Amino acid sequence: MLQETDNTPLTDTLSLGQQFKQAREVLNLSVEEVAEKTLLKKSHIESFENDIFILKRVPPAFVKGYVRNYLRFLRLPEEWIHSVQYGEVIVPKKAKPITPIKISNVRSQTRWLKWLSSLVLLVALGMTLTWWWQEYQKDQQSRDQLVRTQEYNMVDLDNSVNILDSNILVNNSNGDSSVNNTIDSDTAAPSANTNEVSPVAPSLSVPLDASQNVQEEKTPQTETSRSEDIPQQSTTAEPTMDTVDTQKAVITDELRIEITQGQSWISVKDTKNKRLAEKLYNAGDVLSFNDYEQYQLIIGAPINVRIYYQGQDVPLQIDGRVARFKLPLAK
């Protein structure tokens, strides 16, 4: 029976699975017995007999080996193994060339990104520079305007001083002219009297002497009046010096800034650049600071400001420019 099955060719009517089933039935073997003898799974044998040669989670090479083993067990020709497909990929002899996907040049993209990023950076840098320049111009304009106002105040002060000096000179000249006029009138009166009474000289000798005495008495009175005016002026000037001395004695602050006249921009900072004061101050304002090691000062109009440090007057250079210095002064 086995020899007859070896010589039976694979007919066109029967598939490989049907040939497996027919050969097993000829041998009077069940699926369980074939599985025990061939060490194949029962599910695999049933799949082969049902013409299922593509198994899940089983590679095609293993399925092909299982089929070859089953053919040998049933004494069937091994050539039948090539009559079915096992899920393998069949590559045609003339494969069509795969058209490559067109990929744009990566370098061109990177260059474009570089140019774009550099342009953005340049725009940002330009905006920051323009903003800084505008702020700088505003600061310069404010400082120039402050200096101009201080110069105008200085010019007005000089004009007022010149006017006062001219008024004093005019008053002095008027006083001198009045004194001279009185003296001239006094001297002119006796001369007129002498001219009138010249024919009677002996009888009027005594009145002439009296007029001379009167003239001599008038001139000492004017001199005494002048001498009396001078001490009064000196006495009136003395209390102002006393008030200055009392002001100096009263100052107990470490740093004291007084705005004596007009306006002035004042900026005061400590060693850590902390702003203690910074704005435009008017006449009469007083700033006082204590318990700081060092001060950084910016005075817009030094002519309008008086500074005391540790009770001593700090000299300021008055040249129409902004004063910048530190206290205590470097020795």
TrEMBL record:
Region (Disordered): 174-244
Residue spans of biased composition, Polar residues class: 182-197, 230-244
GO molecular function, one term: DNA binding
Record keywords: Membrane, Transmembrane, Transmembrane helix
Residues of the Cytoskeleton protein RodZ-like C-terminal domain: 261-326
Keyword Membrane found: yes
The protein's name in its UniProt record: Cytoskeleton protein RodZ
